[in-house]
Amino acid sequence: MDIPTVTYLVTEEDEGSTMKVFLRKKKGLSRKLLVKMKQEKSIFLNGRFTYLDHPLHTGDTISIVMQEEESENIIPEDISLNIVYEDEDIMVLNKPFGQCVHPTLLHPSGTLANGVVKYWQEQGFNRKFRAVNRLDKDTTGLLIVAKNQYAHQQLAIVQRKHEIRRTYEALVHGMLSDDSGTINAPIARKGESIVERMVSPVGQEAVTHYEVLARYNQATHIRLRLETGRTHQIRVHMSYLGHPLMGDDLYGGSREKISRQALHARSLSFPHPRSGEVLSFDADLPEDFLHLIHQLQLWKDDEYGN
Does residue 136 have an active-site annotation? Predict the structure, then answer.
């Protein structure tokens, strides 16, 4: 079983810098992660363990070995996974609706995390489950899982820089008048609720861009792009606009035609945490979403006698 290793080559511009400065300022590793790696003796200079204050020279090679970790007491379960992409640092999965990402008090089992931990254990690995982006239980589509602490931290950095580009598709109630637009409205927790959110002047910045893909009778198919990643952001913003998601009864939608919010994480694009290569993925719309589009088109055709 190969142990994942990250390797850096020291160039002339870093001559005389220390390993600590190089890894902290140049590569973005956190102080906490460096302390952990130091304790585990998993950082090497030219193949030998070396303390972080050691000066660097042009041509030196720094290697970081990813040690195995415990899986945070997540119970492994044999759950089918739709793995879109995987390498030694990351997984990209297509999550079905009705599945939580992490175990919770209300949903302690059957989650994506339970299935991923089982999948890893079958391969002989112990790892912590680290989801980079989150999806609600009934939202379908793409999400990233980091397979080690280094990858998770590097992806957190690009996430803060808004370099993880996410697009969603949704079906909302009503006919949007504009073909495209931007919703810039801060989001906060609603009252004492641990679940519900609302637009509030004291909330965190939240920006959502949308464009219309198709209009039906009292429904609109839209594509959305997020600049920020607040809890329930799309659901709250579309409800605030007066066009709640179909099936989203928490924020004013109706479940008459679909039993969950009609929201799908359609595409992802982000730089790989190790190579920096930009990766792009796309996930087809799920069956219930496609069925609803078909029904909306039939109702539209009936309306116009087609």
Answer: yes
